[in-house]
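Question: Now follow the chain.
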Amino acid sequence: MAAYVLRRLLLMVPTLFGILLVNFVLVQFMPGGPVEQVIARLESDTSATGRITGGGGGETGGGTSEYRGAQGLPPEFIADLERQFGFDKPPAERFLLMLRNYLTFDFGESYFRSIRVVDLVLEKMPVSITIGLWSTMIAYLISIPLGIRKAMHDGSRFDTATSGLIIVAYAIPSFLFAIMLLVLFAGGSYWQIFPLRGLTSDNWAELSLVGKATDYLWHIVLPVTASTIGAFATLTLLTKNSFLDEIKKQYVMTARAKGLAENRVLYGHVFRNAMLIIIAGFPAVFIGVFFGGSLIIETIFSLDGLGRLAYESAIQRDYPVVFGTLYVFGLMGLVVGLISDLTYVWVDPRIDFESREV
């Protein structure tokens, strides 16, 4: 198993290299780079005094001084601005410098926030992880019992009715469901039950320990509910189908023929085998919720997490933050994929990844 883990770890290097290379090439052709962003702000600021300050240095992204707003600005200022952003170097040199720094998790400094990217990522990450973990745990707590009952009553009215509800829930886009929750329960047109935005109240620091926990749980109800709906539907059907496949196997028929009680057959024999794919898939489900819902949910509920940070940085062309979050997301996805494989082996030692190619 050690050889397989080592191969997977080594494979992460070219994978991350490909992700960064493709996105680096793409941004070279994107209009409105950080230099243009600064110039546009200067041109639109009618109250500017004429004193011009540049942004922080960086090693990624693309930019050109051939911007209409630059026509009235001194060439020396444009050149100085490009130097401060790191655009005075050729693209290949900037990319190689970025790779060298990223090996030590040095993502540089944000162009417009005056803070190191790694500090910015560490500051925003707890919010995204919190929503992802709560959503995944709740999805499992609901989906597994519901999926088992649906499998035991396959074809019944209960199974048909819950399947219809699950399909409808799965078909609703997460952003639409989030907006519906806000309208209904966050002071829209109906009830003011839950807060509209954020993870804590303004007086959170003054609350007791129990009060802080209650306030926190009160704030995450709506965003966690909105991000759980997709994973909940998928997991329920996966659990049902997994149990149905196991129930139809020969060993189950043999156990029933021996006179074992149905609950003992189900939880003593079927449960472990049926739950293999579900338990082992926990890391992948978490990362799916983490990636898929972080941007939309954090934006709608005004949560200051990684998804919202990546979106705002892309709009502002803050390339060190864009590539830093991209690197973190990519690395997390690869690591979670490896953890999923290791979880399969932990749940069922009969699985051997050594005998297959990566």
About this structure: The CA atoms of residues 171 and 230 lie 8 Å apart. Confidence is low (pLDDT under 50) at residues 46-59, 63-70. The chain is about 70% helix and 0% strand. The two ends are 12 Å apart (CA to CA).
